[in-house]
Amino acid sequence: MRHVTKTSAQHMAAIGYARRSTDMQDRSIPDQQAYVEKWAKENGYTIARWYVDDAISGTSVRGRDDFEQMIADAEAGSDFGTVLCYDISRFSRGGTNETGYYLHRLRLAGVEAIFVAEGIPEGDEGELIQGVKSWQARQYSVKLARDCIRGSVSSVKAKRSSQGGQPPYGYDRQHQTATGQVLRTLRWLPDGRKREFDATGKLVRVLAADENPGKTKSDIVRLVPGDKDHIATVKRIFEMYLQGLGVWMIAATFNTEGVPSPKGKNWNAQQVKHILGNPAYCGTVAWNRRQTGSIFRVTGDGQHVARKTAGKTWNAEADWITAENVHDPIISAETYAKVREERLRRRPMGGLAKSTNRYMLSGLIRCGNCKTNFYGWTRKLSKGRTQQYYVDGAYHRKGKAVCQSSSIPAPPLNAWVLEKIRLTLLGDEKGRSVAISVFVKSVLARQKGGSEVARLEKEIEDIGKRVKSLATMLTDTALDDVPELQQTFVDLRNKRKAAETRLAQLRTSSEKRLAATDLRQWAQEQFDAMEKALNSKPGTVQLCNAIAAYIDHIVIDPATKTGILYMPPDPLTCLEKALSSWVKRSEETAKNTKKLVDQGNDEAEFD
What is the full DSSP assignment across 400-467? Predict the structure, then answer.
């Protein structure tokens, strides 16, 4: 045991620090405190107060609020000169570097740390022993992390058992024996409490939110369909999404109807997304969807790899550990696959993704203040009447802390935008004819002259000559500026590569093959299609797509409720934009076709 030298009254004033990793260690903190207080009394210390981190891992200081407060109080010149802790593992399992860092900060503040159960002597020998024990504490966590990963992977793949924690919305957690006999079923309530039912379905007790029901190693935990109302809500979410509604609209519909969310409050888009993206609903157990460990991350083949960054992150689907057909599904595998495909299609499209139930300007309006998109919202009035608005998404999610309320009536804004498009892009028949002629001449001139192609060919040739010259100079060892020449050589090669890439794009461009008659016919078809779409009924897909094709965006000033419409200034610019989009789509189609040929349909689906 370390010999204690009573140098001053301040150093006899101490605080205690205790920590336990999980709430399964029911007596860990009281036992630590009792041991430390007994030691303090025997050695003449008075513990002024305790700093306690309960059920928090010691592998990192992150999230250990009392530990960080203890360090801050020491450095602020607090009323203690000693920190008493049961052992080094309670202080930190972060390894010799982290443990030494915080002990050094305490020493600089004039505070000594004593690990009362370790018996570490003073001097060089004590520093060596302290370093070894710190390393041992870290290795214990490393081994435990490896064992937990191995056990979790085994539970999914071998036992085909659900992992711990709260089950997905709509499911209960059922404990069974290896032969399938039901032991008990747990149903989570919105406030975190848990109802426990016996094998016959009789309610046995209600557990507090912080009370762990526990399980034996032999238990097989299955997900089973739970509350009927929750199951119906899950099915509706998948059905509504496939009908064309977005996550915001689904959440808003449930809130309007008074359907309680998984937390018992209003729904939000994130909750809907989590349900749509959880394979548990089609009977699949998926572990490692989220990375929470501080030491390792897990790969898709169940291997552990050291983590380079801390914090909780969502893993790529390739890293999920899954087992199919483990429990009764709420929705079919076919429905889940359709929703997954639709989510991938919509993901890059924002508010323009929905094919039905879409407001005319969805995805095109943004706030000039908070830069957040507006979304469509329908307000119910008396006698069954309704009124449509475009509302600021940030304000409706987080209130005045982010932005002020901006609700723009939809009908007048829709009508104003339509009128601007008709006047600017369609104009009269003579104006459209002139625009088509200028457009055709412009495209043909670019194709015939090939000015950019010629420029790039000349640039590549010149760079080639300079590269050869530099290569010769780099062989001359008498030159003093060889490093500068090497960097110039690298820069020129990179520049040549970029020019070659652009030249290849131009030579394979679909625009290169267009003839004058084809261009004129195509341009006329664009105007005809636009006019037909603009004359279609409000709310149709054709009208919404036509608007989105020719409008860049609308910026709303929330203070004045006025906005700026960004769109092509004339019919010629409109045609140029449409041609550019058409060429880009053609190239992407060719690229995707090549992927299908090279990789096969199954693999390409997940790119």
Answer: GGT----EEEHHHHHHHHHHHHIIIII--HHHHHHHHHHHHHHHHHHHHH-HHHHHHHHHHHHHHHHH
